């Protein structure tokens, strides 16, 4: 009897050992694979609340090595000479781009070798279709010339999209959107419709995306120096002022709220760009935050621009573009602006806006 009991005891030990080994094996599978499928299949009671799947949406396309073909002739860069009248780097150590801080031939040669696809999203709703011809024709002369570009024209009147002669690898893509009764609704609607269209279409057709205002024209080169993971443009009206003078949203009730004493720069929402997936996150953020504000019966002081500045304060852009990248025909040109790359047009807001500019 004692021998039988001993055999039973040994058998139980063997079973426990086998179970322990089996559990160890499953644990190893879990650790090295990063998935829950094995545990869920064989020991479902051990996996009660698995964490949500984490998907890397940083980008399906990233800047590669900064290489270029041999034989390109250009001026040797200097370690001692450069712009001394402006700051060319932020305090988080990314470029602040001005004329004279880059060599167009070098940077275009590098990026053209990568051959990125660039999407430009503009909204031409109501009477704003009148600005399409000037924007598109000037874009073909100055915007990322030699690169693949799709102009996504969001409009409530596709028949008003002009016929423009486009360069090789460039095309116009109409996107229908509803009309609006207030210009503020057009501004806020941009984030909603851009989010939906990136999800449904643009994600499969672009590596970079720029959001731009249609009531502007390109005056000079707007090239590959503007490309980065997330590029923001300094607002021409506030790039020389202190942060407490920025028109941030100062009401704590709004999701765009930024308290006094905080802030780097004030960025315009008329031009911004970056990797497709990084731009998608930012566009969707502005849309969702605006929706929260609407439920709380508040509208940020400068609509999506307020939410854009809130996001970029805590999620720093990887390149800051000087006001060269969006000036205005309303304003005189100061000495530190050596070239105007794109400029907003003078117009009668009361005439072109659906609610008379109010």
Automatic annotation (TrEMBL):
Keywords: Glycosyltransferase, Manganese, Membrane, Metal-binding, Signal-anchor, Transferase, Transmembrane, Transmembrane helix. One of its GO terms (cellular component) is Golgi apparatus. InterPro entries: Glyco_trans_6, Nucleotide-diphossugar_trans. Binds 1 Mn(2+) ion per subunit. Its main location: membrane. The active site is at 305 (nucleophile). Its cofactor is Mn(2+). One of its GO terms (molecular function) is metal ion binding. An alpha-L-fucosyl-(1->2)-beta-D-galactosyl derivative binds at residues 235, 305. The chain crosses the membrane at residues 12-32. It is a single-pass type II membrane protein. UDP-N-acetyl-alpha-D-galactosamine binds at residues 123-125, 128, 213-215. It is found in: Membrane. Mn(2+) binds at residues 213, 215. This is Globoside alpha-1,3-N-acetylgalactosaminyltransferase 1-like. It comes from Channa striata (Snakehead murrel).
């Amino acid at each position: 009897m004692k021998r039988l009991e001993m055999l039973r005891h040994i058998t139980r030990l063997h079973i426990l050992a086998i179970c322990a080994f089996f559990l160890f094996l499953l644990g190893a599978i879990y650790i090295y694979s990063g998935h829950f499928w094995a545990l869920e299949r064989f020991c479902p009671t051990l996996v009660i609340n698995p964490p949500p799947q984490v998907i890397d949406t940083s980008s399906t396309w990233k800047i590669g090595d900064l290489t270029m073909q041999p034989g390109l002739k250009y001026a040797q860069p200097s370690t001692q000479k450069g712009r001394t009248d402006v700051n060319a780097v932020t305090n988080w150590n990314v470029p602040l781009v001005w004329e004279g801080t880059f060599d167009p031939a070098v940077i275009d040669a590098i990026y053209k070798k990568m051959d990125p696809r660039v999407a430009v999203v503009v909204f031409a709703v109501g009477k704003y279709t009148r600005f399409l011809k000037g924007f598109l024709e000037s874009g073909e002369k100055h915007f990322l010339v030699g690169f693949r570009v799709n102009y996504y024209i969001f409009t409530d009147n596709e028949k008003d999209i002009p016929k423009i002669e486009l360069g090789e690898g460039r095309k116009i893509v109409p996107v229908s959107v509803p009309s609006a009764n207030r210009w503020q609704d057009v501004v806020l609607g941009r984030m909603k419709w851009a989010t939906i269209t990136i999800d449904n279409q643009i994600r499969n057709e672009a590596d970079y995306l720029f959001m731009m205002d249609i009531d502007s024209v390109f005056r000079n080169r707007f090239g590959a120096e503007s490309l980065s993971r997330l590029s923001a443009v300094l607002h021409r009206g506030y790039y020389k002022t202190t942060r407490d003078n920025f028109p941030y949203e100062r009401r704590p009730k709004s999701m765009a709220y930024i308290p006094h004493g905080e802030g780097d720069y004030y960025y315009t929402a008329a031009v911004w760009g970056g990797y497709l997936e990084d731009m998608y996150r930012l566009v969707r953020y502005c849309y969702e935050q605006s929706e929260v504000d609407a439920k709380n019966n508040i509208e940020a002081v400068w609509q999506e621009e307020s939410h854009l500045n809130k996001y970029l304060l805590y999620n720093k852009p990887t390149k800051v573009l000087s006001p060269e990248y969006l000036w205005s025909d309303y304003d005189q040109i100061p000495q530190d602006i050596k070239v105007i790359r794109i400029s907003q047009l003078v117009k009668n807001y009361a005439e072109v806006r659906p609610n008379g500019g109010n």
